Amino acid sequence: MNITLSVDERVAESAREAARKMGKSRCFIDTHFLVYADSTDEPHKQRIAIDLLRHLRFQRLGVLSTQVLNEYIQVGLRKMGLPHSHVRAQLQCYRQMDLAGVTPDTIEQPR
Fold first, then answer.
1. Cβ density class 33-44: b for 16+ within 10 Å, e for less
2. I need a labelling partner for 2 at 20 to 30 A (CA). Which of 32, 45, 105, 107 fits?
3. Listed residue (20, 18, 46) closest to 33, CA to CA
4. Sheet with strand 62-65: strands edge to edge
5. What would you report as the CA-atom Rg of the chain, rounded to the nearest whole angstrom?
6. Rounded to whole angstroms, what are the CA distances from 99 to 36, 38, 62, 79?
7. Which of 63, 71, 61, 76 is nearest to 18 (CA)?
8. Residue 12: is its pLDDT beyond 80?
9. Rounded Cα–Cα distance for residues 16 and 33 (Å)
C-alpha cells in the first residue's frame, strides 16, 4: 500500500521530528521563528515555526529575550504591517515562555 502525504502533513511531520530530536532541552528562540509564524507568504516555514513554537511553549522549553520580543514588535508592525491587536495577542502568548532580559551583565557573561 502506497501512502501519499499532503504538503501540510509532511510539514507537520518535519516539525514533529525536529521537536522529537530536541527532546527536553531548553531552546532560545530567535526573532526569525516569531516572524515566520506570522509570515503567510512562506506557508512551509510558517507551519514549521508554529509547530515548533507550540511544542516549546507547551513543554515549557522555550526561552525568549526582551530583545527578541522588541525586534518582533518592530518587524511585525513596520515591515509586515500586522495589526497592533495581533501583535499584542502574540505577545501575551509569548510571555508565557521564560523571558530573559538583556542587560550589560548578561552581555558580558562568558558563554
1. bbbbbbeeeeee
2. 45
3. 46
4. 27-28, 62-65, 98-100
5. 16
6. 20, 20, 9, 24
7. 61
8. no
9. 15
Grid coordinates of 12: 507537520
pLDDT, one tens digit per residue, over 26-58 is 888 999 999 999 999 999 899 989 998 998 899
- The three cell numbers of residue 52 are 515548533
Question: What residue type is 102 in one-letter code?
Answer: V
Q: Which three cell numbers stand for residue 73?
A: 514588535
CA distance 52 to 97: 13
**In which residue are the cell numbers 509586515 written?**
80
